[in-house]
Give the backbone structure.
Amino acid sequence: MHERVDKPTMEPMDEHNRSLVADVHPHDWKNPIAKSRYHLVVIGAGTAGLVTAAGAAGLGAKVALIERHFMGGDCLNVGCVPSKGVIRAARAWHGQADGARFGLAFTEGAGDFGAVMERMRRLRASISPNDSVKRFAALGIDVFLGSAKFTAPDAIEVGGAKLRFLRAVIATGARAAALPIPGLDTSGFLTNETVFSLTELPRRLIVIGAGPIGCEMAQSFARFGSEVTVLDAGERVLPREDADAAEIIQRAMIRDGVRYIPDLRIEKVERRGDQRVVTYSRGGETETVAADHVLLGIGRAPNTEGLGLEEAAVGYDKRGVEVDDRMRTSNKKIYACGDIASKYQFTHTADAQARIVIQNALFFGRRKASNLVVPWCTYTSPEIAHVGMYEGDANDAGIQVDTLTVPLSEVDRAILDGETEGFLRVHLKRGSDRIVGATLVAEHAGDMIGELALAVTHQIGLGKIASTIHPYPTQGEVVKKAADAWSRTKLTPTVKKVFRYWFKLFS
């Protein structure tokens, strides 16, 4: 029997979002008839689930994939893809407004925020076929749209069908969660799951939290022309990053018009007509700030509800599904990967963990998630990218380090681009050229961190990087400059003395 599925929508339901939904949750889809048993059943069709399902099917396994909402998960629909489309537009607006220093006269007139969001929806829809039901069905995967629930340690029910499995993977991800702030729920607020449905630019916007999402959106909306206020319980933005790196981002945000208020406690949120009013306490004083919308930039909750994890004997807590280093749950037939089971909630981490799961679940592999070297990037302007250990991490692990820092103001291309605000910091295991961690602050740091991620992953030292020709002029040359700086440390007084003796003989 074929089971019809629910019909989720994406606002606004224009031609682009209709195209998106037709790809990632077609309303006329009929679930297939379940096979007697699957090698692998995957719950969740975000990055982790899609990579797991496609990889296993490509190797010949019988695979079922279940998704209750939109194929593509957060990344395609409400995360990486739409956010970067919006960030790119904000950079373009800022570049035009900042054109005077490059000899460009400022063009009068307001920009069209509606056009920005329409472009984002159009491009998102153009990418969606990669994650579509049609594509994954064509790979030989049985795609089921609906809510999955374990009914036994080796069985799942979806839409009235019972799917039995040899192995299963939970890849249901996480979602934005409300903070326990009085009045927040009743006043209404935006998250990363709803902010991309806006069609009009908020005149005033309050952002709660100064983590990556909060900072990216605050800066972007300020560049579009919103009056943005960031309310933060911490003492500075991006607390995970080095203080001087975060300070660069904080200065850039303030320069772009963001009002940043740190070290506060939010007392309540009220709805007054069309406005939201936030009351906060700071330094013994109570103040208020009003805006058209409140964007919650922090808080994530794992999607564990309704899965019947108890029936499957799968352990979980408020952080998500519990797994060992091989991504196995307490039920050895069931694995989990991606945001539901990882402290690194990035698309590329979900992809890497999915590849581990395929090997370990289907081929008796013994790959460990702890061996992954995970780079990440916050897409503010400039960006902060990082890989490996921070200095504090190294100290905690008992690893002594030598640290090299090269400012972008020493890189010719950065000077020519007018993007000298930033630096590369490399931590080396003391007495060697082995890179244990690196932080890069640059306008396109995320595009540049790959060389350092390769070096950390495969233990390629700065000596080999120093012997590699880097194109000039590029901002990536900052990595070569760090390598050259390390090479110069080899010129100890003793070595210099030997060289002086040699040249004396040579003359």
Remarks:
- Residues 1-5 have pLDDT under 50 and may be disordered.
